[in-house]
Amino acid sequence: MIKVKVPATSANIGPGFDCLGVALNLYNTFYFEEIEKGLDIQGCCEEFSNENNLIYTSMKKCFERIGYNFKGIRIIIEDDIPLSRGLGSSAACIVGGVIGANEIAGKVLSKEEILKLAVEIEGHPDNVAPAIFGGMTVAIQDEDNIHYSKINVAKGLKFYAMIPDFTLSTKESRAVLPKEIPYKDGVFNVGRVALLITALTNGEFHLLKTSCDDKLHQIYRGKLIQDFDRIKEKCEEFGSLGMFLSGAGPTLMALDEDKNSKFYDDIKGFLKTLDNKWEVKPLDIDFSGAMVL
Ligand SMILES: Nc1ncnc2c1ncn2[C@@H]1O[C@H](COP(=O)(O)OP(=O)(O)OP(=O)(O)O)[C@@H](O)[C@H]1O
Ligand SMILES: N[C@@H](CCO)C(=O)O
Question: Which GO terms describe its molecular function (predicted)?
């Protein structure tokens, strides 16, 4: 069987809407096998145990691109990435499916071609690029190509994913975004995304709080997440370096220095007082990206 491990990803990272993303050490593992006929999906909830399964539909698109006629497919899923929580579960399924199909068909596509196909399926490149390549990436799409570059994040940064017990699909979360934004909001974000990247590479972590600010999506989406403002306030009060909405939400991501364990205890205690259940997961950057094992 072919085994593919794909990391979770946190996209946008504040002002980098649809272009910044980071791979984190939380994983989905998929096992693939070509069988005589049909589709056999194991390890998955009933809702996705059918032909519409995103892993399977992504495999089919890859087989089509390559021109490979498959007989049947078995997929076994071990998923630790929570679904529709802003941690790149869909990108992990797409990347896993495309890589699995490419392996079955004889490793025809290059990593760049895998990226291109996965972005076509996902619709934006910010989760897909770090899921494939690992680390933190900038990725943009023009008419025919995906351009990406890795950001060399300075050592010592810890990610705290605050994951609620409710879901928010990317589709729902994109639906509340405006069609147009004021010019000054565009200027606001351009400056901050540039500052964010230099602060991260130079290790100027004191700049992260300001550079995580955003006017393209968080102000609209924050309203969909109960206690968003209170949690943001508390992250600041407990001394985190910055906080942003992970992907399309509802997970909120706090940044802190990895030597400061007090933040973790403080925020965990506070989240327990809220109406919804919130779990806090301390995470590190995954530098490897998707791997065939
Ligand atoms: N383990 C899984 N098995 C099958 N399908 C899955 C699995 N995990 C995710 N999916 C698919 O991905 C969809 C969730 O994707 P969605 O874009 O809404 O959220 P996300 O990718 O978790 O968050 P974000 O894009 O904000 O990081 C599910 O509705 C389902 O179609
Ligand atoms: N950039 C995407 C990430 C989630 O898939 C969004 O914010 O909608």
Answer: ATP binding; homoserine kinase activity
Q: Please give, one letter per residue, the 3-state secondary structure of 62-74.
A: HHHHHCCCCCEEE
Tell how far the Cα of 281 is from the centroid of ligand 1, in angstroms.
19
Ligand 2: nearest atom to the Cα of 90: 5
pTM (global) more than 0.90: yes
Q: Is 209 in the pocket of ligand 2 (CB under 6 A)?
A: no
Report which bound ligand comes closest to the CA of 131.
Answer: 1
157-283: which CATH topology?
Alpha-Beta Plaits (3.30.70)
Ligand having the closest approach to the CA of 15: 2
- What would the pLDDT profile of 58-78 be if each residue is shown by its tens digit? 999 999 999 999 999 999 999
Express each pLDDT in 186-199 by its tens digit.
Answer: 999 999 999 999 99
Pick the CATH number of 2-151+288-292 from 3.40.50.10490, 3.20.20.70, 3.30.230.10, 3.30.1330.30: 3.30.230.10
